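Quick start: load a record and inspect it. Here is non-reducing end alpha-L-arabinofuranosidase:
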Amino acid sequence: MATGSDWRRYFRAWTADSLSGAWTPLADTEANAFIRSNNVTFAGGQPAWTSDSASGDYSQLPWHLGLLTRTNSSC
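Running the structure step on this input writes:
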């Protein structure tokens, strides 16, 4: 997880053939984020994890597990 220039969270990703193998960037920059508010949609009524209304101590903010489903691929 990282924080972007706009203070919104984004997530980066790398791939490897094994845990001890060489790690290759898949989406590792703010401009090419693996998950970010501008490339994620939410099912009806579900709260966005990038909500601008959150405030307070970061470690005390509520969180919810989520499942990512790729929808823009022919894989």
